[in-house]
Amino acid sequence: MQFNFKGKKALVTGGGSGLGRECALLFAQNGADVLIADSKKERCEKVAEEVRNLGAQAIAYEVDVTDYEQVAKMYKTIVEQWGTVDYVVNSAGVCLTEELTKQSIDDINLSIDVNIKGVIYSCREALAIMRPKKFGKIINMSSIAAKACLGGFSVYSATKAAVLAATASLGREAALDNVTVNCICPGIIKTSMWEEILDQMAGDDQAERDRVWAEWVKGTPNGKPQDPIDIANMVAFLCTEEARYITAQNIGVDGGFTF
Predict the structure, then answer these.
(1) Where in the sequence numbering do the catalytic residues fall?
(2) Going by CATH, does the domain composed of 9-187+226-253 fall within 3.40.50.720?
(3) Fewer CB atoms near the end CB (10 Å): N or C, the chain?
(4) What is the pLDDT of residues 120-161, one digit of tens each?
(5) Residues with Cβ within 8 Å of residue 123, at least 6 apart in sequence
């Protein structure tokens, strides 16, 4: 798909890998400059170099999205260097699976801090920039787990359902200022996050990893996993003028896994 984002400035949290990286590269391929934010500096820098190789400007930015002051400083940096931010993708997230009574308090708190606070902090700073200038697009990453709630995913599902609720409310708050806020619920995609989920469910047993992965893929009606570009294409579409009337929505890009 072809999009025209020339002159636009994008910020992608979790941009150093997985879906965030795919979104950053698609923005760059279509003319946008991108700030790649990630908790690991080396990942930011690697994707930033890929963005520059596509002819766009890039800022590699190491950030802990659970720290409000760091998030605020990140937005101050993009405004100081580029003047504004037009598109924000909040893709930073963690998925820590375990039955609730067995899950550590540290893991519970980390899930809440990254998946909820990280999104809300970023949206707060983005909206403060976008609403006065009467333009902006925010896309938050939720998950099929927000709707298909299974055992072992209680905390993760709760955090991703919170993203749906926050998105719906923020989309309404910003509607009169020509700022749209939507979220995407991706399906089964073999990203680094899914590799970590398989680590938790199957450990190093490759046969068991393959079995677990196959079981999840079977839940998709066509029996096939998705590719990261499937999500990036929806992100890009939501940033177009053609999507100007879509806001406060949660959009499943999951091959029919949920409805």
Answers:
(1) 156
(2) yes
(3) C
(4) 999 999 999 999 999 999 999 999 999 998 899 999 999 999
(5) 88, 90, 138, 140, 166, 170, 181
